[in-house]
Design brief:
Blueprint: H1 2-6, H2 8-13, E1 20-21, H3 26-34, E2 49-50, H4 55-61, E3 65-66, E4 76-77, E5 80-84, E6 91-96, H5 106-116
Amino acid sequence: MEGYQKHIDILKKVGVSVVAASVDDFISANEVAKGECYPVSKIAKSYPIGYGITKEQATVLGSYWKEKDSSQDRCFIQPSEFLIESDTGEIIALSYSDGGLGRIDARDVVGFVAGRENMKDDVPHVWPWGIDPPLD
């Protein structure tokens, strides 16, 4: 979530809107939105964050639901990202994971969309190994 906020200007430049969803209650989701959920979240988010997501809503979203077990004190949505074509509602890229590995990075989204929309010359190259692009 931090990476998406960090690159929100360039995401907007290529026509990407960001929306997040969580099983967290309003207070916890609001702490994340404000960047007050240390050490996990240090940057305020300018995009919407849904809260109180239920198993039924996770199913509608297409996210995997993780039931409580001995290692977790509550149910949650497994991390999942969807890149959806706004005109058609078609999912054009997605990722499911149970941790940080395999997640869709904001920089990957910029590169994917810029290439798909033939905007490669309109946005800076987005290096996958952590060199941040200029946000101009």
